[in-house]
Design a protein that fits this description.
Length: about 400
Amino acid sequence: MTYKSGPHFLQIPGPSHVPGRILRAIGQPTIDHRGPEFQTLANEVLAKVKPIFQTECPVVILPSSGTGAWEAALVNTMNVGDKVLMFETGQFSSLWAELATRLGLQPEVIPGDWRHGVDAAAIEARLLEDKGHEIKAVCVVHNETSTGVTSQIQKVRKAIDAANHPALFMVDSISGLGSAEYKHDEWGVDVTVSGSQKGLMLPPGLGFNAVGPKALKASENARINRSYWDWKSQIGMNKDGWFPYTPATNLLYGLNEACDMMMEEGLDNVFSRHERFAEATRRAVRTWGLEVLCQSADEYSPVLTAVVMPDGHNADTYRATVLDKFDMSLGSGLGKVAGKVFRIGHLGYFNDLMLMGTLSGVEMGFAVAGVPHKKGGAQAAMEYLTGNA
């Protein structure tokens, strides 16, 4: 590969940029995970991660990707043959349903158009039909990374309550946590699933389950075979600062630092920063004369923006041009929107100048790749940022 001067622009919606503070923390010498120094680290990080989820409940930290955390949420609460109600918001909601099927569950997926979030009214209507309470869980994605749509989790909770249904409420906030407002306790979520490589600014390698009391109770009667993913052994040992197996020690150093960084900035400031970048990006897209995939203004993602390509132009061909000419990676379209959209990540360790470099690269890429557009998108974003500094 030909040498290219300067940093690579990693503008996919995760894994995201890893800041120097976190890299230096991860780069510390590995310590004895059965010694007192590790016990101190574990107690610190287990306490610090709770405010990120906005919970007082246990947060299980798994050495896995978000997919492992999906599996952990289901195997700790469900039995083979159980029905779970899901809503199709995009590729990742579909993959979670596929995983549920492989575990022997029976996912029932309410179809969606990949341009809107979860339809809480449809959830409520289906639960009202379930007179025998055969549905054991409602599983939805908070921030759908494949589409740039953020569902309103509070409305789903209200729908479950309005139906007076006992189903567990599970939420995937793998790409939302740390970038979009999220309140595990206040919103009445039973299990929140997340991962380290998005808003938390770490490399891939940690998965999370925030576990509410109703889910813990359900785990006592869950009979899907599990060992590595078992909450009971993990939560039991975590109380004293230990893990039941070798943990990802150096990633825990990084997580400890990430939590400190987010609290230093303040969660409200973190969320408003992401909202500001998202609005600037959408203004650029509209100025280019292109379309944002998400069609509902109250569901725009603060994490990423999915951009619809003009007819006759392939998003992956365009992305390849941007990578070749400007050394910038943009997110690909996935599943039903493959080749039709590209995704701009604006999450995690990110500031105004990084966004302007990103949007300038997108606009230059349009010109080089011959994609029809109107000039001035980057300028429109810059004007918004300077006017709302």
